[in-house]
From TrEMBL:
CDD domains on file: NUDIX_MutT_NudA_like
Keyword DNA damage applies: yes
Family: Belongs to the Nudix hydrolase family.
An example Gene Ontology molecular-function term: 8-oxo-7,8-dihydroguanosine triphosphate pyrophosphatase activity
InterPro entries the record matches: Mutator_MutT, MutT-like, MutY_C, Nudix_hydrolase, NUDIX_hydrolase-like_dom_sf, NUDIX_hydrolase_CS, NUDIX_hydrolase_dom
Keywords from the named record: DNA damage, DNA repair, DNA replication, Hydrolase, Magnesium, Metal-binding, Mutator protein
This protein's name: 8-oxo-dGTP diphosphatase
Binding annotation for 8-oxo-dGTP: 24, 35-38
Gene3D superfamilies in the cross-refs: Nucleoside Triphosphate Pyrophosphohydrolase (3.90.79.10)
NCBIfam families named among the record's database cross-references: mutt
Residues at which Mg(2+) binds: 38, 58
């Protein structure tokens, strides 16, 4: 039996239509790969509340449940767990995203997303983002 792990992620979109990617730091699983900000949903937490918390912790920005619009999701079988990852779009937040946890950040045009190596779960998201953003 595989454990299903719920991870909430977000496409933060700036005024120029670019998306924020974060590079996973050394020492973490899948280090060096680029991902969407977010993280595991904790017990008793909604996916939106988890993102509001993760964006505060990881990037030092504030956003609100009402600014998170459902966009798509990823469902991927890793060796040791099955990832279920709702992906929200967010165009409104307060503050300037900063790498609070040693990540490298980059604002990326949707048509350049495929130049950034991503975790396997994220690959099917690239054409969806390219079409929708
Ligand atoms: N935030 C985020 N996580 C992703 C993406 N794609 C993807 O496979 N994941 C996986 O979802 C999990 C997110 O966990 P997390 O961010 O809360 O915790 P973590 O990096 O410390 O995870 P770890 O326990 O694997 O080291 C990780 O296993 C991560 O590799 C993505 O685009 N964004």
């Amino acid at each position: 039996m595989t454990k299903v792990v719920l991870v909430s992620a977000v496409a933060l979109i700036d005024r120029d239509g670019r998306v924020l990617l974060a590079q996973r730091p050394e020492g973490k699983s899948m280090a060096g790969l680029w991902e969407f900000p977010g993280g595991k949903v904790e017990a008793g937490e909604s996916p939106e509340a988890a993102l509001v918390r993760e964006l505060r912790e990881e990037l030092g920005i504030e956003t609100w449940n009402s600014c998170l619009a459902p966009l798509t999701f990823a469902s991927h079988a890793y060796d040791d767990f099955h990832l279920l990852m709702p992906v929200f779009a967010c165009r409104k937040w307060e503050g300037v995203p900063q790498p609070k946890e040693g990540q490298v950040l980059d604002w990326v045009r949707p048509n350049k997303l495929r130049d950034y190596p991503m975790p396997p779960a994220d690959i099917p998201l690239i054409p969806i983002l390219r079409d929708w953003l």
